[in-house]
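Data availability (excerpt). All sequences and predicted token strings are deposited with the supplementary files. A representative entry, Neuropeptides capa receptor-like, is shown inline so that the format can be inspected without opening the archive.
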Amino acid sequence: MDSKLFLRANETYDDFFNRCNNLSHFDCSEEEMLWWLMGSRRLPLKEIVPISVILVVIFLTGVVGNACVCVVIVKHPGLHTATNYYLFSLAVSDLLLLLFGLPNDLSVYWHQYPYSLGLVFCKLRALISEAATYVSVLTISAFSLERYLAICHPLHLYTMAGLTRASRIILILWIISIVCATPFAVYSDISYRDYPPNSGNMSLDSAFCALMAPSPLLELSSIFFFFVPAVLILCLYARMGYHIRSTRVTEKTKIGLLNGHVHGETRQAKSRKAIIRMLAAVVIAFFVCWVPFHVQRLFFIYGYDLPQFHVINEHLFNIAGALYYVSATVNPILYNVMSGR
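Structure token line:
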């Protein structure tokens, strides 16, 4: 909404802001105060229409793609492997993220306040979105470790092999994620502004579902559920790449000996590298999609005093928000493109 709509006869912009920002001579209607403090109830159409189109496409492709991944894995016994169990868990977490997060965020673009879905949904949405995020990064870490053991320490993995073990690990990851996401639900609340300011009278039109968490919560979330797993995953894939390369050099020295055996090793090596390429693509896509999200979170905390904070934060928020949901959509596409199975 343009501030011109609030200007009185012969009033300048400075006069408008002074009467709505000067508490000792406060002369501002509730609608004017909310615009001054919270911005427009709805963003301009030229901004929200393209954003809405992008988010709807992400939602439809993500829901259909991840649902198909779950159905295919469940219905085909040949795909019941430890790696695919992890991918199934990842698809479920992506579905939850899309179903509980994206429609809510899309509605906020069209109607930023007042929030009307109630406190229960406000907290539930925070819990599920955060838990699904944690499940994703922990699942990617788990199947990266699984691939590392299969390639670099196959005998050790053989002694631990079994779908039951993978199922138990996935269950533990979900429990850890839900427990660690619980503080976000606890600290999520519907906030209100006072009208007039500092009067103690809540403006019901100012209702907004927001995270009222103390600062360390967001930093700890980024550290333990992004940066630490990122370092771990990068180290694992670097070690796997080195091992595959050294193994390939060793195999070349065996050419001419036991052709059938050499061909078997070659097929095994190709299959192993195909799996690595697919999982590496999943990991790379995950980091590309999630780096802006965590940068925006940290910038919101530590960049508030910068002169261009609001402009930078708005652009970061839009980019990070879109990539946030792209991360839940891109995995089924990668499975289809990079894996014949």
